[in-house]
Amino acid sequence: MKYLTEYRNLEATKNYLELIHKVATKTWKIMEICGGQTHGLVKNGILELLPESVQMIHGPGCPVCVTPLNLIDKAIELLENGVIVCSFGDMIRVPGSKKSLLEAKSNGGDLRILYSPIEAVKIAKNNPDKEVVFFAVGFETTAPANALSVLHAQKEGLKNYSILVSHVLVPPAMEAILDDKFCKINAFLGAGHVCAIMGYREYFPLAEKYKIPIIITGFEPLDLVQGIYMAVSQLEKGIYEVENQYSRVVKEEGNIAALKVINKVFEVGAREWRGIGEIPNSGYVLTHEFKSFDAEKKFGISHLKVPENPNCIAGAILKGIKKPHQCDQFGKKCTPSNPLGAPMVSSEGACAAYYHFSSNLMSE
Amino acid sequence: MEKEELGYETIQLGHGSGGLMTRDLLDKIIFKSFSNPYLDQKHDGSVININGRMAISTDSFVVSPIFFKGGNIGELAVNGTVNDVAMCGAIPKYLSLAFIVEEGLKVEDFITIVNSIKKAADESGVQIITGDTKVVERGKGDKIFINTTGFGEVNSHAKIASEHIKNGDKILLNGFVAQHGMAIMSQREGLEFESTIVSDTTNLNFLVNDLINKFGDKIHLFRDPTRGGVASVLSEISQDIKKGVLIYEDKIPLEKQVAAACEILGLDPLYVANEGVFMVIVDASIQNEVLLFMKNDPKGKNAAYIGEITQEHPGKVVMKSAIGGKRIVSPLIGEQLPRIC
Which of B263, B318, B337 sits opposite A90 (nearest CB)? Predict the structure, then answer.
């Protein structure tokens, strides 16, 4: 907890906030990539402490929010056919095209909420007569543990374990956002935990090509305001570099051991992003050697396709083109208890974060 | 009671049939443990005396696991209902006790639970005066469910009602939040983690009654933030009274280990369940006196002032963060779901 309390230090945080107020002379739009950062910004009330000219745009880095509808339907299909489906917590309330995993559970499905996919391997071992599927969603952060679960299952010779993969990668998403003609983003706060795994070398060409500062940033109040300060400082000086605010966790080369595990089990391939569509080379798929652990292939459910709710503007939200409260449905037809789209479900989702925490609602 | 004297090791369907097996279970375990003039009549119900106004509260207990660090479902079933009666400004006197047992529950577990109920009832000064035992087929329950209803005499000095709350009133808590929920969480399947966090389940009726006797109508409301935690109770109150609630993040009493566990699991302690915590809303003039009074009681030694009732943002709870920002604290929707990363 020492690392946490130090990075919640009131004086140090205030100092950086003052510095931001001093250096910011123009309007800057900074996108924090990661949903954990969005959560930190709103939970700590940082947004209202920033000068008006420094505007934070909430990025697509919420794994729950970008997992396509058809994958949720696939997980539900498995659940309803007697498969034990294991999932991270925030995934289970996300509405699929007809229902959520939680509703499917109440209809009798065996759904397990886990913190680690390794637990799912244990469940597979203890239930040899049942099929067990782990819903492997997430960015690069969760990929090592998910990959490791496959290696464990292989080592144990388990034939009843597979994963439903929806792994997405941050850099291609950043590029897709920057290529959008409506994009107005001046700088990025890079996702600290993603870089803890991947390092940050892959961001150098991005910063260069798009002439945009990228600050690898952590999640505590002090991390966030320091990251914002570093971004604003670069923008005011007219430079664009990759800087590492989160150096206590992130190394340039990343976590070599974790990368080895990822590269053994996964390879880069095309992925569909909820609200954005398919982006080439934007996610992980299982390598040929581990195809037998691919739940989509194993259960023949690859073909399932479903359209999104046309009233949900998740795509524009995830790209930072619109803010949640600029959506006609926000807080009316779309609330956390009745979400139209994923950003309203996860506490990391921009819409839910606004709904729960934002002082914008106080004037209601 | 030892299980050897019973001649069976598990609870069976017949124990809920109403026949001889039921009688045997009642005589050897229930009536023996809870013997009192009301129960000893072995009637279908009991006739009791209540002076003045009566407070009633009922609650069902379905916690899993049934044994957890710091307690079990039995004492929870007593303390939970005793506290709900106490929150009405009443002195809990009597309790009904109904079991729904899943066939196959080990008798020794049942006895352990009954013994805990007895101990908790004695400690909080309530008598078990009527009850029921049903047994359901294996798979149709989850080991054991307990329902209790509590009856209490309202303290004549009490003037507890949300309509008495006014702007400027102060909000205090008697101790650390989120202990119970995190103790349970640390033992859930798939989530087990090493910790010494124990449930805070306890009776609060004596401290609550002492506060009423001492401060009378200057105390405006008691609530115990069980499921949904402090955040949900405050949201309910602010909506009921159409006033704002302002709380301070750095004043919420939170034990270090519990804070760390919440961080690791991605849970907000404000939404985590408590079983030995109560919130009291008092006239601003007695804030310090009440705090001191609570701190002098073992059940209030970690008491803290956490915020106040405001004219601004009616119907909403706002928390001032440790770094000075503000955010809305909204009610819990369903179960609190852990975040992915």
Answer: B337
What is the C-alpha separation between B36 and B24, in angstroms, rounded? 18
Do B249 and B300 belong together in one domain? yes
The answer to whether position A159 is within a domain reads: yes
Q: Are strands A84-87 and A132-138 parallel, antiparallel or unpaired?
A: parallel
How many Å separate Cα A21 from the centre of its chain?
Answer: 29
Say if pTM beats, i.e. exceeds, 0.90: no
Task: Using the 3D structure, point to which of B132, B154, B176 is the last residue of a domain.
Answer: B154
Q: If you write DSSP's letter for every residue of A51-119 in order, what string do you get?
A: -TTEEEEEEEE-HHHHS-HHHHHHHHHHHHTT-EEEE-GGGTTSB-SS-BHHHHHHTT--EEE-S-HHH
Yes or no: say if A163 and A149 are a contact pair by the CB < 8 Å rule.
yes
Residues B202 and B248 in one domain: yes
Residues of B in contact with A117 (CB under 8 A): none
Q: Provide the CATH number for the domain around residue A147.
A: 3.40.50.11740
Burial code (b: 16+ CB inside 10 Å, e: under 16) for B47-83 equals eeeeeeebbbbebebebeebebbbbbbbbbbbbbbbb
Q: Which residue in A43, A167, A222 has the most chain B C-beta atoms within 10 A of its own C-beta, making it the best mutation to test that interface?
A: A43
Provide the shortest C-alpha distance from residue B183 to chain A (in Å): 17
Does B159 contact A at CB distance below 8 Å?
Answer: no
Q: How many residue pairs from chains A and B have C-beta atoms closer than 8 A?
A: 112
Q: Give how far A181 is from chain B: nearest CA, Å.
A: 31
Answer whether residue A11 is part of any domain. no
Q: What pLDDT, in 10s, does the model give residues A222-249?
A: 999 999 999 999 999 999 999 999 999 9
Nearest CA in chain B to A14: B323
Taking the Cβ of residue B242 and every Cβ of chain A, the question of whether any pair is shorter than 8 Å is answered with no
Q: Does B326 contact A39 at a Cβ distance shorter than 8 Å?
A: no
Decide if A90 and B340 are in contact by the 8 Å CB cutoff.
yes
pLDDT digits (tens, 9 = 90+) for A118-145: 999 999 999 999 999 999 999 999 999 9
Both B176 and B141 in a single domain? no
List Cβ neighbours of B179 (8 Å cut-off, separation of 6 or more).
B70, B197, B198, B199, B200, B255, B258, B274, B275, B276, B277
> Residue B334: inside a domain, yes or no?
no
Mean pLDDT, residues A243-271 taken together: 96
- Residue A79 domain boundaries: 65-167+254-298
Number of domains in chain B: 2
B198 touches chain A (CB under 8 A): no
| C-alpha torsion A84→A87→A92→A97, nearest 10 | -70
With cut-offs at 50, 70 and 90, classify the pLDDT of residue A214.
very high
**Predicted complex ipTM:** 0.76
Give the Cα separation of A342 and B203 in Å (integer): 42
For position B99, which CATH number holds?
3.30.1330.10
Q: Cα separations (Å) of B34 from B77, B81, B133? A: 15, 17, 14
Winning range, highest mean pLDDT, from A268-282, A307-321, B97-111: B97-111
- What is the domain range of residue B173? 162-329
The reply to whether B3 falls in a domain is no
**What residues of chain B score a pLDDT lower than 50?**
341
Alpha-carbon distance of B326 to B321, in angstroms, equals 6
